[in-house]
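Protein data:
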Amino acid sequence: MPDCKVAIIGGTGVYTQDMLENENEITVETRYGKVNMTRGDYEGQTIYFMARHGGGHSVPPHKVNYRANIAALKILAVDAVISTAAVGTLNENMPPGSRVVVDQFLDFTKNRTLTFFEGQGGIVVHTDFTQPYCMETRSAIIDAGNRINEKVIDGGCYVCAEGPRFETPAEIKMYKMLGGDLVGMTNVPEVTLAREAGLCYATIGLATNYAAGISKTALSHEEVLEEMDKGKEGLQKLLITAAAAIKPVKSCSCAEAGKYWQEDLHG
């Protein structure tokens, strides 16, 4: 079986993957812009690591070049993508410190480019999102957690807000009523673009605090970073263990969902 290529997209607090070997920095040119990332090896797998917010957390969530990032991974022909996202929690069964392998999302973004398909070449595409996240990649993360005794929660609904401000208590109350478990600012359009491109994509929601109106204190970015730092070593091991377990041949529907991707139009 050929070696696999897996990408890890690190969100807030996840700016490196410390367990890679033979690291080198690469730049991928796409029609949407240049993308910088690290290439390395781990147990026979080629691993690409991308810091979503750039070095030093310099790019806010609503300014991330999501299309360039996903197009770059498509050009590199990665077999799967594992992303992390720091989130507030709305669910007492997913307290701060929880790692949730999300399986659904609610989109409350307002001003982002959400698709690759804008009528180029006369093609109109409506992508199925019955299963927004790759089942096999999700399973690889859950299985990895079980093997290395790093607890993960199977399933949760991610609410994506526009940001960069935190949400109001009224918004959090609404999200909870609609079935949201976690709230963050980055998973959309990343997840939608990944599916349009036919990539096997999964997200680990990293609960750092209770959301506004549930938390007993005001929210701060510093609080998020402090919580992220607590479980850094275990998270690094979880990510690399899951990445090493992914196989290039899959039975999921991700490639079928991306059947309209055309390199000359979107790459």
